[in-house]
Amino acid sequence: MRILPQLISCNTAGTLDRLFRIRCLTSPDRVGFCYFDRETNTWPEVTWKEMADLTSRFQQGLQQESLTKGDRVAIQLKNSIEWVAFEQAALGLGLVIVPLYVDDRPDNVAYILHDAGVKVLLVNDDKQWLDLSVHIDQDSALKRVVLLNSEPHDNNEILSSAKNWLPEKATHLQERGVYNHKLSTFFYTSGTTGRPKGVMLSHHNILFDSESLLKKIGIDDPHTLEFLSFLPLSHMYERTAGYYVAMMAGAKISYARSIQQLAEDFQVIKPSIIITVPRIFERFYDKVQQKLLNQSIFARSLFRLAVHVGWKNFKFKQRTGWFSPIIVLNPLLSNVIGKKIHQLLGGNLRLAASGGAALPETVARTFVGLGVNIFQGYGMTESSPAVTMNNFSLNVPSSVGEAMPGVEVRIAENDELQVRGPVVMLGYWNNHQATSEVLTEDGWLRTGDKARIDGRSIFITGRIKDILIMSNGEKIPPVDMEQAITLEQEFEQALIIGEGKSYLTALIVLNGETWPQLAQQHGLDPLNPESLKNKKLTAAVQKMVAKALHDFPGYAKVRRVSLSLSPWTIENECLTPTLKVKRNKVIEAHQKEIKKMYS
């Protein structure tokens, strides 16, 4: 008889490290993790007992460093079993975890290490440390840097290779005890302006949110789920929804190789649940659309019909639309068309939790219409992070769902969505002013997002600060317009300009893959930078932009564009580590182009 793992509740666990220890004790021989081994070109599986042993070794390593409860330690690794082992080892000793983005700028990482007073840092290799070390001040609190996959480059006394730092044998795992409201982690928010702030979250914050997510998902047998993890564990969204939720349920977590190899990993892992951001489905949508261009008119028409019928069937089942006789075609069309889309995602996907930004309606309608269960949600680091989510019983793709169990929401002044409950952070580290600005005296978290509530569903309508006000007083939602523009496969990135101006303009980064074809259509040399300034090309792009924005009001018209092939990235400081555009940075970097568009 197969013994299935039991769900571990928030109250039973008490702390994150105790959650891990209970799972290791109750499901020792069950596979908990899977990863790709580049040396053997295989996907090894790791049991909870093996994870406990690895964690014990990391715990012994940390005990050598004379740390005291409350000291901060940091991780800058890709998602891996070592990330989990180091984190759990530290939590069990009462230490505070500071997760760092692998692709973050070294100077920004150095700032976080200094601000948090980090004493031990785990990085991948010597090169990663060399890039970072030049930004580390002499008065840094760092006393140990552990290199996971290489030897130190010199005799720097704070450097150690994991091979020498970790003991060979595992011992009994320690846990800090049930101090559930104690600090567990700092998450530095990657704001689009200014320095990042350290969000302080307790064990209870995260455990409560994890249990609420499990309840919201509403799957009777969550232990059968297999998560494919590809968003960074240094982001609270993946850490809560893709890691702690899985641990609570006794599910398996497989770590993807990279975003670039994600399509292949879907075929190997065949996940049943993914935690994702809209951009992933946008990329799948673009690939599907590109394939359709090479199909016959009949094939394209059949695809559109399948989406149309599937969407009507979805709306009818959700009781948000009327019955239509055409719905009877859905089983046939689903078997012919929908099945192919499901195969792109591995064939076993039961749900995709999408957050971080709004999923474009066209993309949502396509995948949901073809039977892919995409549940949009909403949250922020300061709320651990999940606040709302759609689910099987109520899924309104244009909304972010309803509030999580035990979480209160309200619409306050300026239509701002505010949140209260056990998920709300303790505050910002060493920043009382910023804390008082976002937390009211009675515990409501000011999200900065505008929203409305219709029935049980919550709709995000924009950012309080992300509204452009033109010289004629018209208010423009730039993010919505930019999203509509980048749905066109020729455009990779877009930014709308127009604050205080009489008309709108746009900075547009062209898609490097489709640019050669676009250039040749207009008789231009794709290798010549001057081609981007061609008047016929810019006129054609303006028409494409106008078509993408046809659903927006007439005053939301882009009159001039500036084209580029150089994407905005984390490295050039135009994107945050969570891939949000730093509007001020982009505008600052393109002053010459903007001035020309308004000359």
Give a description of the structure:
With 599 residues, this protein is an alpha/beta fold. Among the domains are: 15-179, ANL, N-terminal domain (Rossmann fold, 3-Layer(aba) Sandwich); 277-351 and 362-372, no CATH class; 468-597, GMP Synthetase, Chain A, domain 3. It is 36% helix and 21% strand. The protein is built from 20 helices and 26 strands. The strands form six sheets. Strands 2-1-11-10-12-13-14-15-16 form a nine-stranded mixed sheet, sandwiched between helices. The longest helix has 21 residues, at 297-317. The model has no long low-confidence stretch (mean pLDDT 92).
Note the beta-strand portion. Answer: 15-25%
Number of helical segments with 4 or more residues: 20
Q: Indicate the CATH class of the domain at 15-179.
A: Alpha Beta
Structural class: alpha/beta
Name given to the CATH homologous superfamily of the domain at 15-179: ANL, N-terminal domain
The backbone outline, from C-alpha atoms, is globular
Which terms would index this structure?
599 residues, alpha/beta, Rossmann fold, GMP Synthetase, Chain A, domain 3, nine-stranded mixed β-sheet, five-stranded parallel β-sheet
Task: Outline the fold blueprint.
Blueprint: H1 10-13, H2 16-26, E1 31-34, E2 45-47, H3 48-63, E3 72-76, H4 81-92, E4 96-99, H5 106-116, E5 118-123, H6 126-133, E6 144-147, E7 159-161, H7 162-165, E8 183-189, E9 197-202, H8 203-217, E10 226-229, H9 236-249, E11 252-255, H10 262-269, E12 273-276, H11 278-293, H12 297-317, H13 330-344, E13 351-354, H14 361-369, E14 374-379, E15 386-389, E16 402-403, E17 408-411, E18 416-420, E19 427-428, H15 432-438, E20 445-454, E21 457-463, E22 468-469, E23 475-476, H16 478-486, E24 491-497, E25 504-510, H17 515-521, H18 535-548, E26 558-564, H19 583-589, H20 591-597
